[in-house]
Amino acid sequence: QTVTRRFVLVTSGKDPKMSAPAKLQDMPPRGGYQSIPFARVPAKKYFKGWQLIAAYAGFTTVGLSLYYLNCRENHRNEVEMRGARNVIYALLLAERDREYLKQLRRNRDEEAALMKDVKGWEVGTWYGEPVFKTLPKDKLVDPTFEEFYVHSASKDRANRKNVKMWA
């Protein structure tokens, strides 16, 4: 035999010069295997039917009573919050109007400071001529957006202008 053929036989376990180990047949243990349990084994019952129905009725009764009490409390809180919102709404509107009038006053003061050196200039008029001739003097004319924020910082004006986009 050649060396390569011997190498192939040795590595494949078929070398004729080596003795093969005796193969043992797998046999059952002495006395045989245990029998396979295949009989039906019913599940253990922890509660009887009437106990389950009673538990359901008890839990439902307790749950509904707690739900009712919680709903009453929530309703009471909602009424209180609605009342507080209605009360504070008038205050917030008054504060908004107050701040609006303060800004109009700041604008008039700034106009007076800017135009103090211009001859014949009166605040709120165009060289002494009223801008709105047909309106009474005590009538407040709301300024335009740009006119309202004319003396404010440009950042504040830009923030206020973008509020409409986010609302």
From TrEMBL:
Source lineage: Eukaryota, Metazoa, Ecdysozoa, Arthropoda, Hexapoda
Function comment: Complex I functions in the transfer of electrons from NADH to the respiratory chain. Accessory subunit of the mitochondrial membrane respiratory chain NADH dehydrogenase (Complex I), that is believed not to be involved in catalysis. Accessory subunit of the mitochondrial membrane respiratory chain NADH dehydrogenase (Complex I), that is believed not to be involved in catalysis. Complex I functions in the transfer of electrons from NADH to the respiratory chain. The immediate electron acceptor for the enzyme is believed to be ubiquinone. Involved in the interferon/all-trans-retinoic acid (IFN/RA) induced cell death. This apoptotic activity is inhibited by interaction with viral IRF1. Prevents the transactivation of STAT3 target genes.
Annotated InterPro entries: GRIM-19
Regions crossing the membrane: 50-69
A GO CC term attached to the entry: respiratory chain complex I
Keywords: Electron transport, Membrane, Mitochondrion, Mitochondrion inner membrane, Respiratory chain, Transmembrane, Transmembrane helix, Transport, Ubiquinone
Subunit: Complex I is composed of 45 different subunits. Interacts with CARD15, but not with CARD4. Interacts with STAT3, but not with STAT1, STAT2 and STAT5A. Interacts with OLFM4.
Family of this protein: Belongs to the complex I NDUFA13 subunit family.
Membrane topology: Single-pass membrane protein
Compartment list: Mitochondrion inner membrane
UniProt protein name: NADH dehydrogenase [ubiquinone] 1 alpha subcomplex subunit 13
